[in-house]
Amino acid sequence: MKYGFHIYFSILPTFSRNCKMSKSIVLLLLICVVYQSVSGRQKRKGQYLDRGFSNISLKKRVAGKICDSCQVDFAVDAEPDFSYVMTGSGFTPQRFCCGRNDSDPAFGKFRNAKHLISAGLIGITFLPNFLMEKGKRVRYFHSYGGTDYRKLEFSAKQNGKTIQSWIPILELQEDKDYSIDMPSFHAGTFNLHINDTVEVTVRAIETKKIVKTITVIRVEDKATNFVFYELPMESEDFSINLQNILNINSGIPKTEQGRKSNIFEKDYGTIGILRFGELGNDELQYAFEKNSDQWKSIEGLNGENSAYIIFGAELPEGKTQDIYLRYSSQPETVHKITMRVKQRPFQMPWRKVAVISLLLVAVGGLWFYLRDRRSKRKLAALKRKSEDTEARLLLLSGQLNPHFLFNSLNAIQGTFNSRDPERVNAYIGNVAGFMRDVMNNGRKEFISLHEELALETDYLKLEQERMDFSYSIEIAPEIQASMIDFPPLLLQPVLENSIRHAFNRDLASPVIYIRVFNEDNTLYVDIADNGNASWDSAAVHEGHGLSLIRKRMAVYNDKLEMMSIDMQINYKEGTGTMTRFTLQNWLS
């Protein structure tokens, strides 16, 4: 069942029934409607007088006979140089007023059009201002201006494609569907789809000078040319507001433009009014289903009057009703709007409100108390975990420093055997400086990748004092080493194993390669040697330094969320050992 929709003429009994208005108010509204009807009809009778349209009489032919009672939709363009009439449409409707505004993004593309129309079937007929007869000008319409139609020709294009080649106007016949009380030349009837363009060009036969260009575009004509009003029935100014809507189209608090919204809301118990602008000879149609055959028509009292759709106050609260709108001149373009009726404000006895409020406050307080306790326990657990992680890292760092010291002392001992005191002194100084950097950085949780590579470079230079090998460090251009955090001394045990276990006396040219690169947010560090011996844990007993690496990585992985460190060691005979550190999500 559809609720509360009335056309303009049913508004009075509906309001009388729902509001129980006094007889005086009903009589006043009835006088307004009758006055509007009479004044509107008077305007309709003379609607063409100011436009110069009264100079011709145009009637429709039905089965070859003139129909005096048939309504004809037409308009005349009467200019000093050229005149014509277009049937089937009254030129650009009032609701297309924005279409001629170049700054309007929705219609600016039509600014070059002579006429914007809604209907799909139109005819264009030329009306001569004068014709030469026996060497004299004979006036037919408007004025003596322009050119003798005997010297003109025209062509027509639809969507840029020629549908009528150049033909003298004098060869044209009268329109068989319409009767005009003067000589006329029918250029043709055109069937336009939406967004189709027809261009009729008139020019002089001898000079080819363009006399007139008529451009007609059929644009999409959505039924959005309305204003939505919400009228409270309990208001003291109800009758005044209703009169203002009917007479001057204003005067109530709430309005919305149909071009700006498809959804409209009204309070329960109020009246919703859709006021459509001037329809001309067109009709507004509405239905409750898009593909319905039950379209209902609404007309204004005349072409210059508004048309109304009323949403009655009896619509149930919470009701949502879809309405489909269209103009009779363009039935294929259907516009959907939705009317929603708000729920009535919920009312509850104060005693129940107080009880429920106190209950909610008690439950809320208990919930906040329990959540606060749980949050404090969680924070304490996280703090203990963080302190435990830092203690484990510090302990591992403390184990790492003696390991470096032991290896450095062995290296110093090796230099004594060289019996070169100056070399020994320089080496001891370098080892001392290196150990100082190791002890300073070893206490930190992170250092920069640049600092880590600098430490490893110092270490490799120390090792070169006692063993002949070369090394290279390659960093990808997009890597900003000084901006990336890195666990200190993570790479040193791997370099130590390559030097002390992979390189033997039979290897001609020992080389170590260090490569740093990334893929997306993951950082990779590859350490490769060309040694001829395997030192990975699967082949030999894992050394103390490598064991410390694995323990430190486990601590970091336990502490860092969404990030991880992994180490993979692979030995290939004839190629050497390649160790890859993968720092997942390290650059995010």
Automatic annotation (TrEMBL):
Keyword set, alphabetical order: ATP-binding, Cell membrane, Kinase, Membrane, Nucleotide-binding, Phosphoprotein, Transferase, Transmembrane, Transmembrane helix, Two-component regulatory system
Domain of life: Bacteria
Record membrane topology: Multi-pass membrane protein
InterPro entries in the record: Bact_2-comp_sensor_kinase, HATPase_C_sf, Sig_transdc_His_kin_internal
GO cellular component, one term: plasma membrane
Gene Ontology MF: a single term: phosphorelay sensor kinase activity
Location relative to the cell: Cell membrane
Transmembrane regions listed in the UniProt entry: 350-370
Domain Signal transduction histidine kinase internal region: 392-468
Protein name: Signal transduction histidine kinase internal region domain-containing protein
Annotated source species: Pedobacter frigoris
